[in-house]
């Protein structure tokens, strides 16, 4: 499959460097975090920890997907036709009545048969149960695509711009040990030729994740 290379995008020029993990987490603060917690269960602290694991996992998968021309065009089409950012206009309303089927479809596209392993990793790193972690991922997926769709619309990004955007977002996490650990784990999961026990990898990553908490 052809790789997308040399798009020539200076994505920070378009976004001003304002879209990063903190910005995405900021979308889900305050009352929105409360609405998310009510749906998922657990404590707000567990949900925050879950978000800090789930968002990097999704960014890793999005970056891997958009590294191919077909994947970037597929994301571009999805953002044009369905995920244009309007979900962010009433995020609390969406979180109170989420479209889990839509989220499930997005997760299957991003993670394929590794979706349950990603949910297990989020569960282990956050303290949420497996069902709560899966529901979080299902609820979060349309929000993440909505945030990308908003950036696409505001900055007139095409498939190449989306590839540059997901690459920038992933790169911005390099200094965050917890986030980069989750991204590395997910990237390995999505490698079809990877050998070894996925659960061993999850537990190893979680050990580092928990060890880094303050």
UniProtKB/TrEMBL annotation:
<dbReference type="InterPro" id="IPR009282">
    <property type="entry name" value="DUF937"/>
</dbReference>
<dbReference type="Pfam" id="PF06078">
    <property type="entry name" value="DUF937"/>
</dbReference>
<protein>
    <recommendedName>
        <fullName>DUF937 domain-containing protein</fullName>
    </recommendedName>
</protein>
